[in-house]
# Entry
Amino acid sequence: MAQQGYTVEQMISAKSIAARIEDLCREIENAYADTSKLVVVGLLRGSFVFIADLVRELDLPVEVDFLEASSYGDGMESSREVRILKDLRGEIGGRDVLVVEDIVDTGHTLTHVVALLNQRKPNRLKTIALLNKKIRREVDIEADWVGFEIPDEFVVGYGIDYAQRNRNLPFIGRVRMED
Ligand code: PRP
Ligand code: MN
Ligand code: MG
# Structure
């Protein structure tokens, strides 16, 4: 592989992710058991792998929509300024909504998106994040469902990038910088 100045070590296997998604889906099905349709909103780009696996495991009538938010650019640090680059295609007023994130780090992205979507008066809006890096939180927000709590390490794979790379790894890995 081309020199990229860092290596990636597996942290959470594809198999562990799949097993955790099965459990999460049973909980989501219970929470939205009476829904006529759940609008599952993926936050691009990071959630594209997670949402694909999630909706295929979820035994509920769903609509899939996407919203693109960006705060990191190509760096390792959050800019804390969340930009909406692409809005939802559909209306969510009066609808049941599940916002899907790959990772909650400082919390700025999810806080910003939830506030924006709540202005549209959904019926029930809940959130799910595959990974939670609680130690890094700067704003008081928790996803309703979390796949895995992780330590303060830069992670990639399963949709998550470092400078737009490694999103296609099938597992979650930690980045180790080379000296
Ligand atoms: C990453 C990640 C989350 C967000 C979490 O997105 O996918 O959306 O940062 O960080 P926060 O809790 O500190 O806000 P990024 O802005 O890198 O865009 P991307 O999903 O397109 O990679
Ligand atoms: Mn993201
Ligand atoms: Mg990113």
In short: The helical segments are 14-31, 48-57, 108-118. The mean pLDDT is 95. The two ends are 18 Å apart (CA to CA). Residues 136 and 151 are 9 Å apart (CA to CA).
